[in-house]
Every structure is written in C-alpha cells, then in structure tokens.
C-alpha cells in the first residue's frame, strides 16, 4: 500500500467517525467533574480531581476503541464475560469491604467494582448469543435457557455482596436485551406476574437496611432524622433550586452538607439546587441526544450484534438516569444507582466510557467496512 493511499484511508476513518457522539460524552463527563468540584469544595474533597484523572486516561481510550473493528468485541464477548465472573468471585472471596458490603477489589491504591464492568460484559455476551440465533429460534423456550443464565449468574453474585441496585440493573439490562432481540411480550408479562407473586419470598431474603429503604420510600417522614433524612433533604434541595438555581457553589443544602452522599447517589440534587430547572432541562436534553445518537446508529447498522450492543449501552445509560432521578426525588426506594457521568465513581465512569467507545466502534465499522454475511 502506498503512503498516499494509507493517508487517504486514515482521512476517511476520521471523516466517518461519529464526533458528535464523542463530543457529547466528553461534555457530559466535564459537567460531572464541575459538579463534583462544587460538591467537595467546602470539605476539601478530591472527588473532582480523581474523576478528572480517570477521564483524562479513558476518554482517549474511548476514542481509540471507536476505531477498533467491532468484530473484535464479538470474538472476545464470551471471554470478557468469563473474566467478569472470575472478578466477581474474587471480590466475594478476597474483596475489599467497605460500608457493610464487599464489592471492591483493591490493587495497591486503586479500588474497582467488578459489578460495574459486568453490566457491559452481559450486554456483549447476550448480543453475541442472539446474533448467532436464527430469527425463528429466538422465541423458542429451550434457546432462552443459556441467555437467562448469562443474566442470573452475575446478578446472584452481585446480590450476595450485597448490591441490590446493581443486581437490579443487570436484570433490567437482561430483560431489555431479550426484548430488543425479539422475544415476545407475553413471556415478559408471565415473568412479571411470577415476580409479583414471589415478592414475599424476596422480602424474606432482603437485608434489614434494604427493608428499611423500602419502608422509608413508602413513608419518608416516619423517620425524618433517620432513614428518611436523605430523601427529605434531597427533595428540599431540588425544590429550592427554582427555575434558575442558586448559582454554582452556592447551594445551601449541598455546601452545608445537608445532602448525604452528594458526590454519588445524590449528585443530581446538587445540580437541581445550583442550576435549577434550567440546568435539569439541559442535562435531560444532553441525555436525550446521547440516546438519539445510539438509536440512529442502531437503525443504520446491518449486523444484529452491533445493533444489540448499541441499544444495550443506550438502555443501560437510560436505566441509570431514570432510576437515579426517581430515587433522589422519592419516587422509588434508594438503591444506590449512580447518575452516569455525573456521579463520582471511577468504575462506573470507565464502564460508560468504554461502552460508548464500543458504540462508536459499531458506528465506525458500519461506515468503513464492507460487511460479510455474518456482520
């Protein structure tokens, strides 16, 4: 290949790259760092700095992943899933314990949560499995046993940590992938009915703090200084922001530390208090744009694997957004689900950046490669 033709191919790759999606994800990450700086300012916390270091490393990695052939992720999907399971088992046996849960693996000064990466590995494994099935086979019950296990095994390991929020996300991601692959709706309705019937059994296996969260959700004012404190302070912060907000770093609830876990679960409360309704609309608009980009990529790709991975990542982002905002507004019990890109948490940020990097790969591969019958 001549130098000139190689240069033309590189130019074509850069021209076909989805820079709009890359820019939107980078902007979202920057907004999160700005919010974390405000949340930790009076406490001299380094949340923003740590998140910034992570972003400076993994945003270029996301850029690089976007240029990788999507077939690479197809080939390694089951391997990555197996690695994720091994990491979950290591976390269960040798993991670092904090706040009553054993969810982290410590490597020197670095702690990471394997459960966060497992969300992406489940998407890749399910996408590969359904890609290999013929359309007529997707609705056959025996063919669904393997993908059900792909979802249930990591969900059970994560629930044992205990981590109800992430386990619930894994189950919802799995259900979404089944639906996107073409599994009939009546099967979901049947599972829903079985789930409702099994609620008393689930209640019996829940930890005391998890039961308390459910009871607090039903009546947060029953214990305003105890279990209901978080939700009450969060709703005060959201309501006091008004339309314009109290301005950056001037939120009374956040700066005076009335909002607990303001860097993680309740970062959206900080946003609503400091930037008001207008700031909330901007974040929702940016979120809608990210999801729109993913769905546009999914519509234009020809491969089932690319389509399912792209929609799976978009659905994961959407589920986190909906659960977090419903949680901090008192609409559902607090389950510890972060807001993507805004909440502090390097494992979650890395997972989301890599996930959108794979979406960029799906888009880029679709533009630059002649697809085989399989892809």
List its traits:
mainly alpha, 375 residues, 3% strand, 16 helices, three-stranded antiparallel sheet, globular
By helix and strand content, what is the structural category?
mainly alpha
- Helix share of residues? 55-70%
Number of strands: 3
Stretches where pLDDT falls below 50 for ≥5 residues? 368-373
User: Within the largest sheet, what's the order of strands?
Assistant: 1-2-3
Q: Beta-strand level of the residues, as a percent range? A: under 5%
Order of helices and strands: HHHHHEEEHHHHHHHHHHH
Task: Report the mean per-residue pLDDT as an integer.
Answer: 83
Largest sheet: 3 strands, antiparallel
> Nearest-angstrom radius of gyration?
21 Å
Q: Overall 3D geometry? A: globular
Number of domains: 1
Whole-Å distance between the termini? 26 Å
Protein topology:
Elements (H helix, E strand, L loop, with lengths): L2 H14 L2 H22 L6 H19 L4 H6 L1 H18 L1 E3 L2 E7 L2 E3 L1 H19 L12 H15 L4 H18 L3 H13 L1 H7 L2 H11 L10 H12 L11 H4 L11 H34 L3 H25 L17 H23 L7
Antiparallel strand pairs: 1-2, 2-3
Helix pairs in contact: 2-3, 2-14, 2-16, 3-16, 5-6, 5-7, 6-7, 6-8, 6-15, 6-16, 7-8, 8-15, 12-14, 14-15, 14-16, 15-16
Structure commentary:
- The structure is a single chain.
- This protein is mostly helical and 375 residues long.
- The chain is 69% helix and 3% strand.
- It has a three-stranded antiparallel β-sheet with strand order 1-2-3, with helices on one face.
- Strand 1 (96-98) and strand 2 form a beta hairpin.
- The model is unreliable at 368-373 (pLDDT under 50).
Provide a quick synopsis of the model.
The chain is mainly α.
